[in-house]
Amino acid sequence: MKILKIISIIAIAVLSVTLVSCNKDKTNPDLTKSVTGTYEGTLTTNNLKTTSPATSDITKYNDYTIQVHCYGDDIDTTFMLELYEDGDMMRVCFTDNDFNNEYGHNKSEDHHMMGDNGGWMNWKQHLSNDHDQNDKHYGFFNMKNHQFDYTFKIESKSTNYTQEFSGTLK
Predict the structure, then answer these.
(1) What is the pTM of this model?
(2) Taking residues 116-145, what's their average pLDDT?
């Protein structure tokens, strides 16, 4: 009888841990699954009105952060972005120090884990909690067209311009 009680308690504990783990996975999905891969496209330089072929390799860092490696004749850069769901779009924003360098302030504490129903924060929540009205964002994934667009700000002592990558998932 005593052994039966111990086995029952252990079974209930294992079941509880399993249920909690499964619920966590449901509320915090892997946002990177739908955007990782290689995007082939073009890089357009605004001040020259020229285009050249370019590629962006998107890899997972964690469930809501990606690493972007964009390269071609006119560019070779690697950086991190956080993902935010927004209907048929997956919006992106800077991480940590890059966020602070661009906007002059930090994100809210636990900024990505404060979403509705305990899930990841969505785009509207991110804008409301972490941004001022005039803050600019530089990229997005169009989930229907499997497209990635990102605008790079190029700043040097002699000139400032932008380069825009637009590519589709291969």
Answers:
(1) 0.78
(2) 83
Which helix (H) or strand (E) segment holds residue 5: the answer is helix 2-27
Partners of 58 in the β-ladder: 37, 68
Distance CA 105, CA 93 (A): 14
Question: Using CA atoms, how far apart are residues 106 and 96, in angstroms rounded to an integer?
Answer: 7
Tokens 């029952």 label which residue? 8
pLDDT tens-digit readout, 71-88: 999 899 999 999 999 999
3-state helix, strand, coil in the chain (%, to 5): 30, 40, 30
Choose among 132, 169, 137: nearest CA to 152.
137
As to burial, measured by CB atoms within 10 angstroms (0-12 exposed, 13-18 middle, 19+ buried), residue 58 is buried
What does the pLDDT look like over 77-120, one tens digit per residue? 999 999 999 999 999 999 888 888 888 777 766 555 544 555 67
* Alpha helix segments (H runs only) across 35-164: 96-103, 123-130
